[in-house]
Each structure stands twice: as structure tokens, then as C-alpha cells.
């Protein structure tokens, strides 16, 4: 992609977002009623509600919305494609830091979170796994669509078969899919738009899932894995946004076998090359199976010294420090060839203790995506919410 094209689109923002003037009161309210705690009237929009939600989910306060609408992308992205099969865009930041920090506080306070436990089976052996972070998910794969019922109420969404526009059979999903709430849907649409502008081939990704991780401290983590499940289709485009405390994001190439990547391959990482090599990495670790392999490093990822041919490109592990508002878009052959992780961070003080939210936008193409994402990110345990006084997640409902 020509650098000029990117720069032209992502020219630096010169305006700083301002709090909007208070909107007029509703025409039929002759005497404005005072709002508790001086909440501006525009912040009192009704929350997103849906029978699948355990709680109503607040709308973005207008100052955060204005910040997102007027100041993103805050910087032009840096392309990182200097290693085989690697195709990243790094916005540093995508959301200006003050707005990103407010968005972090808002989402931590308003979203339902889960600490999912599940059973993993390897042959005859069953292991109980505790996901080492808080998670939640919204969205549905492309075979189903949330459609607004007649009457224009944005909260009256029904789930229909995408093709036939008929109600989905009761047995289609083992979970109850949740529509992406307005506060995350604005982000989704914006990220799609910047992404389209950055794609040399003018393709517009359209995301139908929003996964959220909350890392409460340096003890919370995600092990090396790749998001290359078949239910995401070929060469998935995944946008990953960081909010709150800074954390390291590590990437390493999947293991190579003799005859793997050569300098020639590195010079032309077209789909053919990528496809040929991706098969050599063995089974990729999914969000579930990576957990089984230890949540710190993945046993199938250590490349033995003898496994590389003499003329290989040196494959370096990548370490990026992701701060509040940063966004990394992983594209092309990245997922089928590279693993990524957020390692634990030692020490009881510092950035990790601020907590960090990660939001990924993805597109699921078959119904297995929906079952998988809800199983591992909502599960069947209790629902927790952030408590501002206790400064921790508190169990609010022992069911989802
Ligand atoms: O927290 C992050 O930056 C990474 C999250 C991630 O890799 C995932 O949810 O699949
Ligand atoms: Fe991931």
C-alpha cells in the first residue's frame, strides 16, 4: 500500500474534541426537571436493552461519544510487515489517551463480566480450566442477523436467519446471542471505516463480534494463541483495541520445519506462500486449547534450533507495549502464522495494576463461532460487575 494513501486519509487531527453544548430539553417539557448529580441531559439516553442482556447497558456519555467521533483516528497507523506473513497496522494511539481512559472507566463500570471456567478434554484426560482474565462477548455469526422490529425501537431486536429472514430454530445455538450494545457498536462502525481506508484493495471488513477482556492486574493474562479458527474464515481481519493500563503484547511465529521460510518466501508473502507454510505449524492454539497448554507459553510453539534451514530469515519475537487508546489490526496471513499473547506481569504496583480492557472486533462466518465465543467468554457461571467502592468485580447474579 502506498504510504501517501494512508497519510492522506489519516492526517493528524487538528481539532480537540469539546464537550457539546447541552442539548435542548424535549419540546413538550416546559419546565426542565433537574437531573440528579448534574448529569447533562444528553447523557440520559435510555440504555441498550435486550432480553438476552443480564442488565441494561448504558449509552456512551456524550463527551466520550464526541471524542470518538471527532478525534479518531488520533494518529496515522504504522504498518508492520517486515517479517514473513506479518501484516499489522498499529495506531499509537487510535483514541486520544484522555478519551481512551474515560472509555476504559465507562466500559469497566457498565459491562457484565464473567470469570469463565470450563472443562478441556485431551484424549481421556479432563482438566478444569479457569480463564485468567474477565471476559464478555456480544454479536452473532453471519448466518443470523439481529433485525429491528417494526416500530423503530432500537432495543426491539429479533434474531432471524440471515438468508430467509425467518426466526432462528430454537436448537441452532447452545447459547443466547446478544446484540452489540450501542456503546460498542459506535466503535465497531468507526473501526470498520478506518480499516477500509487503510486496505489497499478497498475491502471493508465488517465485524459481527465484539469480545472484551478485562485484565484486573498483572496476574491476568492470555497465553500464546492465534485467532485462526475455521469459523472466522480465511485470513481473518481482527482489530484489537487497548484501554487503560499499559501491557506488553508479544508475538512469535509458529514453529517452522526444514524447508520452511526462505528469503525468497519472505520477499513475497502472497497467499500461496502463506498457505503452504501455515500448514507446517501443527495445530494452532485456540483461545481454549492455549489455556490447556499452560497460559504462559505454548508447548507447541518452541522451535527447535535444528528446525530452520540455513537460508532462513531470522524470525524475531515481537514485543509491543500497548497503551491506552492503541489499536493493532492483524490482517492477511498473520493469524495463520503468528501467535500472540499478553504475558503476566510481575510486581504489585505500576501500570498493570490500573487494569486494562482489550476489545477485539472479528467476523464469524458460521454458527460455530457463536457457540464457541459464548462458551468461552460468557460460560454458564455468575455475572459480575465492577464496584467503584470496593474497586473490584462483585458477583451480581449467580447465573449468566
Ligand atoms: O488483550 C489483548 O491485547 C489480546 C487479546 C486476544 O488476543 C484475544 O482476545 O484473542
Ligand atoms: Fe487473540
TrEMBL record:
Fe2OG dioxygenase domain residues: 206-365
Transmembrane segments: none
Amino-acid positions noted as binding substrate in the UniProt annotation, renumbered to this chain: 228
Compositionally biased residues, Polar residues: 288-306
Disordered as annotated region, ranges: 1-51, 288-310
Binding site for 2-oxoglutarate: 213, 215, 225, 340, 356, 360, 362
GO terms of biological process kind: DNA alkylation repair
Domain of life, source organism: Eukaryota
InterPro entries, sorted: AlkB-like, AlkB-like_sf, ALKBH2, Oxoglu/Fe-dep_dioxygenase_dom
A GO MF term: ferrous iron binding
The protein's name: Fe2OG dioxygenase domain-containing protein
Record organism: Penicillium hordei
Amino acid at each position: 500500500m502506498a504510504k501517501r494513501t494512508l497519510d492522506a486519509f489519516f492526517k493528524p487531527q487538528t481539532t480537540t474534541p469539546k464537550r457539546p453544548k447541552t442539548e435542548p430539553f424535549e419540546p413538550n417539557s416546559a419546565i426542565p426537571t433537574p437531573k440528579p448529580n448534574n448529569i447533562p441531559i444528553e447523557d440520559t439516553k435510555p440504555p441498550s436493552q435486550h432480553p438476552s442482556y443480564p442488565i441494561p447497558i448504558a449509552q456512551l456519555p456524550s463527551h466520550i461519544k464526541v471524542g470518538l467521533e471527532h478525534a479518531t483516528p488520533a494518529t496515522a497507523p504504522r504498518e508492520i510487515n517486515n517479517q514473513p506473513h506479518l501484516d499489522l497496522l498499529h495506531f499509537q494511539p487510535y483514541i486520544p489517551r484522555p478519551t481512551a481512559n474515560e472509555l476504559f472507566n465507562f466500559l469497566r463500570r457498565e459491562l457484565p463480566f464473567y470469570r469463565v471456567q470450563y472443562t478441556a478434554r485431551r484424549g481421556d484426560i479432563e482438566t478444569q480450566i479457569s480463564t485468567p482474565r474477565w471476559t464478555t462477548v456480544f454479536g452473532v455469526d453471519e448466518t443470523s442477523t439481529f433485525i429491528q422490529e417494526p416500530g423503530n425501537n432500537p432495543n426491539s431486536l429479533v434474531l432471524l436467519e440471515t438468508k430467509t429472514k425467518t426466526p432462528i430454530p430454537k436448537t441452532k445455538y447452545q447459547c443466547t446471542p446478544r446484540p452489540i450494545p450501542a456503546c460498542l457498536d459506535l466503535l465497531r462502525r468507526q473501526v470498520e471505516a478506518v480499516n477500509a481506508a487503510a486496505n489497499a484493495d478497498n475491502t471493508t471488513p465488517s465485524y459481527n463480534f465484539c469480545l472484551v477482556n478485562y485484565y484486573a492486574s498483572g496476574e491476568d493474562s492470555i497465553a500464546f494463541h492465534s485467532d485462526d479458527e475455521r469459523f472466522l474464515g480465511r485470513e481473518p481481519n481482527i482489530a484489537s483495541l487497548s484501554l487503560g493500563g499499559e501491557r506488553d503484547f508479544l508475538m512469535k511465529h509458529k514453529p517452522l520445519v526444514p524447508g520452511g521460510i526462505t528469503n525468497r518466501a519472505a520477499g513475497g508473502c502472497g497467499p500461496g506462500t502463506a498457505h503452504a507454510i501455515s500448514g507446517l505449524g501443527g495445530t494452532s492454539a485456540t483461545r481454549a486449547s492455549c489455556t490447556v497448554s499452560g497460559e504462559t507459553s505454548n508447548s507447541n510453539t518452541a522451535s527447535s534450533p535444528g528446525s530452520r534451514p540455513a537460508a532462513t530469515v531470522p524470525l524475531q519475537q515481537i514485543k509491543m507495549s500497548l497503551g491506552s487508546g492503541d489499536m493493532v489490526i492483524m490482517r492477511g496471513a498473520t493469524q495463520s502464522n503468528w501467535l500472540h499473547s499478553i504475558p503476566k506481569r510481575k510486581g504489585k504496583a505500576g501500570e498493570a495494576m490500573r487494569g486494562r480492557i482489550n476489545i477485539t472486533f472479528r467476523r464469524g462466518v458460521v454458527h460455530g463461532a457463536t457457540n464457541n465465543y459464548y462458551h468461552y467468554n460468557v460460560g454458564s457461571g455468575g455475572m459480575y460487575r465492577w464496584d467503584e467502592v470496593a474497586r473490584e468485580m462483585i458477583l451480581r447474579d449467580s447465573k449468566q
